[in-house]
Amino acid sequence: MRRLIARLLVCLILGAVTTVGVAWFLAMYSVRWQEPVPVDVRGTDMSSVLRSIGRLHTWDHYPHYSDGRIKSFGGFYSTGTDTREYGWPALAMKSRVQMYFDERGVASGWDLPTGELVLRGFPTTRLPDWMGASTNDRLPIMPVFPAFAYNTLTFAAGWFVVLLAFGATRRAFRRQRGRCPQCAYNLRGDFTTGCPECGWRRVPDANEQ
Ligand SMILES: [Zn+2]
What we know:
Elements: H1 2-29, E1 39-42, E2 45-52, E3 55-63, E4 78-86, E5 93-100, H2 114-120, E6 122-123, E7 138-139, E8 142-143, H3 147-176
Antiparallel strand pairs: 1-2, 2-3, 3-4, 4-5, 5-8, 6-7
Helix pairs in contact: 1-3
């Protein structure tokens, strides 16, 4: 029973790690499978949605005067919210960038509070070149619920099957070599008395009691 709980816990941790890994992989590479952009222009709002496998990018952007008043479309200053969700089978991780452009039209960068950096995630442009990651994307840090739990459980189930198959294969190999299937102690092919090392299939005999 304790072994089962420990095994389930290991599978859950592996499932969560896989969920994050898949989301980051998609953040780095899924832009290659991107669908074209339906740009939606309503008044001074300019919103766009980009979709690709395991990736949803929504961008909500409007130009404005430096004093905060909304400026007509095509204005120099702009603010916007850039939200990206990544993950498979569900979109499980999120990156949100609130853009503030200064007078020169340059977005503010690293001089941000920690909470904002966590919301933004890690820029893929900072990854080493050999990884070949898409530029102008972000490795998300924020989990999205319940999608994160859903992906974690899905991958945990997968890991459970993989570990089960691995364990069965290892036991079969040990048995074939005449060893204890549980601890690999060499029984020289004699499985009738069980294993003196770990107690596998050992019947407690009268002398020892
Ligand atoms: Zn044994």
